[in-house]
């Protein structure tokens, strides 16, 4: 992919003089760029085309007669749909995200025991999932809460894959965990709390397994896409974006799930977009309707917390649905998928 061509638009003030316009044209030439003057009825604009470089806006903006300088290209180049128009499809075993079929990743919040995760994998595979989620390393708000079984948890997940063939999705919290997570898992998850952990993003960018990047709970879309850019820039093309809800003043849900993110991201990026209605709502009964809404607005997949005994789950029980609710949800989602020309 060619990242070089770039451009900014210099908008001159309506009363800019011809001298001021000429001055900007020669300034743009001095910077090694090609100016293209567009004379409008009220205002003149100058497109400056040429090599990508930082600080261009700041350099041109103080010019006499300049009203504003606008970058044309998105700051995230590799993630942008401007430079790669074909959509990215990410594959891990039978899990395919970004294709015509809606991808389903399901499982408990945490890996609890081998017996449990294998049983859950069998149930979920039989009910239609292609990916198994489960945290071995858990980012918990309190240091006194269950922190996950760590490497033992990864081994339990691998046992569940051996039994079912489901692709393993699990969180990696630190750069020094990447090697061991890659050894056991099929897809690495970067949690919301780590979306701007740039060392971690670079470390997973150097690994050769797909990454689910969860949106930080306070991150803007530019911050989210620039976080993806960190991974892509290190040579890992297989990034899946996940909307998982943001912090707002609302108290009726754990987070606020802004689904407009999904069509917005599909406009801005070629990367697949999935939704996590479990963390997005924090309430099990709100998960199925928001899963359906996610598919309706174009999500390429869902990541959902499911447990056969949510009341006794090691973490996030309140937002965890039962296998029965999961089956019912998928049956309803299949009808929505059909309405938006997808399959499930
Ligand atoms: C999780 O998937 O269990 C999790 C911790 O998610 P998030 O990073 O979105 O809070
Ligand atoms: Mn969770």
Provide key terms for this protein.
alpha/beta, Alpha-Beta Plaits, TIM Barrel, 2 domains, elongated, disordered N terminus, binds phosphoenolpyruvate, binds manganese (II) ion
Description:
The strands form three sheets. An eight-stranded parallel beta barrel has the order 7-8-9-10-11-12-13-14, surrounded by seven helices. Strands 2-3-1-4 form a four-stranded antiparallel beta sheet. The protein starts with a strand and ends in a 5-residue tail after the last helix. It has helices at 18-30, 56-60, 114-126, 150-164, 178-184, 198-206, 221-233, 261-268, 277-281, 287-296, 323-339; strands spanning 5-12, 34-39, 44-51, 66-71, 90-92, 95-97, 103-107, 131-133, 167-171, 187-190, 211-214, 239-243, 273-275, 301-305. The model is unreliable at 1-5 (pLDDT under 50). Helix content is 33%, strand content 20%. With 344 residues, it is an alpha/beta fold. The chain folds into two domains: 5-71, Alpha-Beta Plaits (2-Layer Sandwich); 90-339, Aldolase class I (TIM Barrel), CATH 3.20.20. The structure holds phosphoenolpyruvate (PEP) and manganese (II) ion.
SSE diagram, text form:
Elements: E1 5-12, H1 18-30, E2 34-39, E3 44-51, H2 56-60, E4 66-71, E5 90-92, E6 95-97, E7 103-107, H3 114-126, E8 131-133, H4 150-164, E9 167-171, H5 178-184, E10 187-190, H6 198-206, E11 211-214, H7 221-233, E12 239-243, H8 261-268, E13 273-275, H9 277-281, H10 287-296, E14 301-305, H11 323-339
Parallel strand pairs: 7-8, 7-14, 8-9, 9-10, 10-11, 11-12, 12-13, 13-14
Antiparallel strand pairs: 1-3, 1-4, 2-3, 5-6
Bound molecules: phosphoenolpyruvate and manganese (II) ion.
Manganese (II) ion is lined by residues 109, 279, 305, 315-316.
